[in-house]
Amino acid sequence: MTDSDAAPAPDDLDFESALKQLERIVQTLEQGEVPLEKSLELYEQGTKLKAICDDKLESARAKIEKITLDGAGKAAGTQPLDVE
User: Fold this and answer.
1) At CA 18, angle to CA 13 and CA 22, rounded to 5?
2) Which domains does the chain have, with CATH numbers?
């Protein structure tokens, strides 16, 4: 992992980019060959990336609609998905 990989995570990352960076950080930390100070920096960046991923997923979840069916089982429209 290079120093540029440890740069602060921008909030405008898309989900896939944030997840990819988070996966690289996890792999680096799991190897256990990073000095403590660098590990703490990577952990903080990973926390920010996780929050970005969580926000993107929640936003996508809010946009999902459930297809409603009529009595004959045919699509009759949509309604908001019930989030539990």
Assistant:
1) 155
2) 3-80 (1.10.287.1040)
Task: Tell me the whole-structure pTM to 2 decimals.
Answer: 0.67
Q: What string of pLDDT tens digits covers the 84 residues of the chain?
A: 444 444 555 668 899 999 999 999 999 999 999 999 999 999 999 999 999 999 999 888 777 777 777 888 887 877 776 655
